[in-house]
Every structure is written in structure tokens, then in C-alpha cells.
Amino acid sequence: MKIGGFEVGPWAVKEEGNKRHLIFDCRDCVYSSSIADDPACRYHVFSLLQEVEVDDIVLAEVYERVYSEEQKKLLEEISRVAQKLEIESVWSYKFLGDAKIEGEKDFGERHNTIVKITHDTLLFDPIYSYLELLRAISKERERFSSEDKEHYSDVYLRTLLYIKKNLDSTMLVQKAKQILLKLKTVPDTKEMYKPFFEAQVKPSFIGSRLLFEEEEKLELLDEYQVKDTTVQIFKHPNKPQKLYIVNPPEYSLPPDKYFILSKTREIVASYRPGKTSLSELAKSRKYFERVYQSTIKDIAKENNISLGNDEIIELSQIVARYTVGYGILELLLSDRNLTDIFIDSPIGQKPLYVIHSDFGQCETNILYTEGEASSLVSKMRAMSGRPFDEAHPVLDFDLPDMETRVAVIGPPLAPSGIAFAFRLHKVTPWTLPQFVDVKFLTPLSAGLLSFFVDAQATMLVTGSRGSGKTSLMQALILEIIQSTRIIVQEDTLELPVPYMKNIGFNIQRLKTRSPIAAGGTSSEVAPEEALRTALRLGDSALIIGEVRSKEARVLYEAMRIGAAGNIVMGTIHGESAYSVWDRVVNDLDVPNTSFKATDVVVVARPIRFSGSLQRNRRIVQITEVKKHWIEDPEREGGLLDLMSYDAKKDELELLEDNLKESEMFSKISKMSGLNLEEIWRSIRMNGSAKEFLVEMKNKNSIPSLLEAENAVLANNKLMLLKEDQLEEHGSVDYEEVLGEWKNWVKNHLIKGIIAKTKS
């Protein structure tokens, strides 16, 4: 089509995320696709903005230049002024002067000047037009004050000032004036558009846009590398949440590499994997990257583009990311500092946001698109074999290659469109020493919980979402003696079972039906049936990922009769020991007599000190469930706090007076033959050991000392040294055991880690 006599390529207005995008197909355009550099390109955009209402502008060829909503407004204002002046015909007879007073001898020159400013150049080069307007005004004012007054026209000057008033109201002219006032000479206007219309450039096959703030306003808090991308965390002066900024290499490549990427993606589309399992896909990733490398080499050779081997590998990884991978989301899913990723509907309206383990909720600079969301849903639907449509608007799925669980919702449940919630699992489990290091709990409370695990107590860990209850469960599992068989039952795969197997635990996972699985479509086993099966798998420690519904009755039946054999632990949503009782008895319909099989409830909670925006995870309560009450444990003294959190001191304190009322310690004393003094020596030894590992980690700068692999070795050694004393002396000197263990940590464990690191 033609606009103003110029041939313009196809264009369309695409609506997405409640935003309208004006998209130009510039592949066959004879002009350069740059608003900053090309006057003809500016003219095309200005002209269409007089016809359509849009939010941003995209010039698409091999790569896309995306102009933001703010940049679009700069253009739109000029376009509206030009349209207004054209409608008013400011170059017409009545705006040029008063023929009765002046005659018409100067009307031709005035007409040409106004037409040039408002029609011929305004939509090509508005800054140049404005400068020409200023010259015309200056010239007319000079005529008024000079001997050339006979050529002056009050009507004509008012017309020029009216045009100036309209242009002065636009942000583009205001911004240009700020620059011009700082310069001694007027520059070539060709260079003046670059500061205002620097586009975001991205490959045409990538949907997501990246948004960038003015960095001088931001405070850099952290910077680190994830794959081939630098991640920066900023503090914004006017926003409560931090900013999580990424700039992947595919958004800043030269045009020849964009050309290669686009051609490679076109070619390899024919042999993209179809319906394949995620495990197969993860294994085949390297294969596809090798295929892409060969294709890239061929395309570069055919088009005389010089590429080094490292460049070929980089481009192949980018193509893999957007074909067999998860696109730009893959970078976030690979950042193990993140715990959650959220993409809310309507997609494309707001940037996605993340939960960072150190900085809490952060707003990213990634604007996801509906097209990418639909493509991701199609991939997940094919891989899972589960439906996702209006009849089944929920898809809950595990991405084992990314150690992530994703929940997708769509219409009619989510009326504004598809939305995603990703929960990233820690690849290595948390350990009690790591929790001591970050003040999630105290050394003494770590020793107490470790003792309860060793004493085969039944424990429930409770807290709100994001309070750390699942992470604490991971750490408690690591305190189980490695000779014990463990059965883990989960509806979402959050516990790092494969890693635990690799470091020596005898552990079996059971995967049960998700609570939000599409009704009647899942072939997975119901939680209560899986639990009955688990109880038939022999004497084992039993871990329930989360107690949610009907399985609670089966669990408590097992706990009451001792059929589970060993320690039983689970997590459950709640905010206190009493709320756990209320949930289990009143919501999940477990009898009071069965609930009493619970020995200990551990409560985790996010704390905001002094009303701060920062959320700090803490254990706030360790409570014993006593056995001699009938209806209400709180009213009848059935819930005994052993440790309670003091926010002023930021410490979980031992309530020594309450220990006198404890039934559990008396029971453990009878069953183990240890008196109360010996029990507490054992607990304090456990706590001191955790604290010592933290001290050694900080002193020697060895974070890996607290990781599961080494923390479990240290725990095993402590138990073996204690066992040696029991066999040799029939009793334990806890101080001697701790001293001997500390020497082993210094002379063997730490030296081994350092040697391994060097090698």
C-alpha cells in the first residue's frame, strides 16, 4: 500500500494482554526500519498513528525494533498536531495576512513557509520543522522592528505562534528544546532522534520484550551470572519491591547473527521433537545443540558470514533455548536463587515477577506474551498427556529437567486469560547447619529437632506458603540415620529425593495425585491409597510431603497403631500448633484421640522486623502435644511450648519452666534409659556440632561445608563416635565426643573439601 505517495509494507494491529501493538512488516521495505535514523520510516509511522489507536510500535524484519508506549506517545503527539493543523488548513488565505491592509504580494512566500513546516517536513523531521518555525517567527519579528515593516503581518505572526504553541505542547519538542539549550550551535537534526527513539532490538522469533529503567536512579544490590546471562538486582527509589534485571545475549546481537538465528530456526523447525517425555528431552538437548551448530555453520558459509567456534556454540544454545527449551523463562528457571516465578493474566500487560531467596519479591524486566504462553501450554500438555481447556482449566505439572513444579490456570477459572505459577525446588536439600547460618533457627533448637528425629518422634511442620516448612522437612530427613529405610509420599515433587539417594540414603518416593489435577482425568493414585500402600512396604520412616485431605485419617491410624514403624513426619498449612489441631480435627475429620499421636508441632513463619518490607523466615514455636486432654488441647493445657520466638531478641528461646510439665521427655527417658540431664547433654552436643560447622564455614570461607553431602557425613561421624563410646564404656561423655568430632572436622572433613576443590 501507499501512504503519501510512499510504498509501505504490510502492517497490522495486534491485540495482546489488553494492549494494541502496531506491527510493520519491514522485510521488503526499501527504507531502513528505524524511526531514529530514517525520515521516511518516521513519516510512515506518523501517518498511521493518525488512523489507529495503539500502545506501542514494532518494526519487524530479521529482527524487531520495539518502541515503547512512552516513545509511541512522543510520535502520537506530533501526529495529532499535524492532523489538527491539516484539518484547520493553517496555510489557507485567512491565516496568511489581511489582504485589505497588506495586499497579497507576500502571501505566496508565507504559504510556502507554512506548508513546508506543517505539511512537507513535519512528519519526516519534526525537530527540523520546529527549528524552521522558530526562524520564521524570528524573521517576522525582525521585520516588525526594522525598516522592512511593510512586509510584516500581525495575522501571519499569530499563525506562526499558534503553530508553535501546538508543537510546544508535545513532549518530543520539549525534550529537544532541553538539548538544544545546552548546545552552542544547532546540530544536524538527523542525530537528535537517537536519544529519544533508541529501540529495543530482539530476534523476530522471540516474543518477550525486555524493559529497562534509567540505571542512574537505581542502586545495584547484587550481580551474578546465570548461564550466559548477567542477572542484576536493583533497589528502586520509588518501588517497595526490588528489580530483577536480565539482558540475555540474544537481545544484543549484530544483524548478521540475528539473520543466522532466524534462518536456523526456520530450518530446524521441521525436526523439532514432538511428543516426548521431559527426561528424554533433557537428554537430547545436547544432540539438538550439535545439530544446530552444523546448521549455523552451513548458513554462515552460504552467506559469507565469519563466525568463530565459540560464537557458533553460543548461537546454537540460543536456538535450543527457543525450540526444545523454555525460551527466556529457561534463564529464570535456571537461577536457583529464585524460589517462585509468577506470570499473571492478562499476559503482556505487566512484567512477570519472581521471589528471590535473598531479596524477596522482585519485579523483572521481562514482558511475556500470549503467544509464548500458548506455546508453553501446548508443550506441557503434550508432555504430560493431560487436558487443558475450558472443561479442565487447571494443569499441575512437574518439570523434572528444571527441578520445578508449575501450576497453570485458564478460563473460565481465570477470566482474564492463562496464568502461571512456578515453584523452583532447591537442587540440594537444606541442612540444619545452613538454617543456623541464616538464623532460621538457633543451634539449640537445631539440636532439639535432631534429637526428636533420633528419638523417632512424630512431627508436623506447619507454616504459611513460603515460610520454609518444606525446606525444614528436607533438613530433618537428613538427620535420619542413613541405615533407616525412608518412604516419601508427595503429590508435587518438592523433596530432592534423587540427590538424597546419591549421598547414601535408602529412600523410596511415591508420587500421588495432585489436589488440583483435572477431575477424573488423572491416572495417578489417590494420596490415601498410596499411604495404605506405603504402610505395606515394610518398616520405614514415613515422610508425607503435605497433609491435605483424606490421607490424614490413614496417616493418624498408622501413627496410633505404630504400623509405620519409624519416625513419621509431614508438613501442613497452619500458623500455630493450635491451628494444626483445628485443621486436622475439624477440617480433615481426624478424631482427637488420633491427633494425640502427634508428638511435636514445629511452626515456621515469615517475620517483618519493625514493620520492615523485608521478610525473614524464622522458626517461632516448637510445641509438644501432650496426651491427657479430651476436647480442646489449648483450653485443657494439651499444647506445651518447649521453645518460643522473641522478635525483639530475634531468638528462639528455650522455656525451661515448661520442661517440667513435659510428658514426652519422660517417655523418651523411660524408652532410652537416659535421664533428663543426659538427654539435654545429647541435645546440646547436637546443637554445638551444628554451630561449629557454621563457625568453620565462615572462618574458612567454605559454603559447601554446610551442604547436605558434607553435613550428613559430619552427622554420621558424630553418631558413630557416640556409638563407639557406648560400646566401650556403656555410657557417653558428650564433651569428649564433641571434642573428638571437632578434630575430625578440622583435620579430615575440611581438608578433604579443600583438596577436592583444588583438584
TrEMBL record:
Residues 398-604 form the Bacterial type II secretion system protein E domain. InterPro entries: P-loop_NTPase (IPR027417), T2SS/T4SS_dom (IPR001482), T4SS_GSP_E_ATPase (IPR050921). GO terms for molecular function: ATP hydrolysis activity. Transmembrane segments: none annotated. Belongs to the GSP E family. This is Type II/IV secretion system ATPase subunit. It comes from Candidatus Iainarchaeum sp.
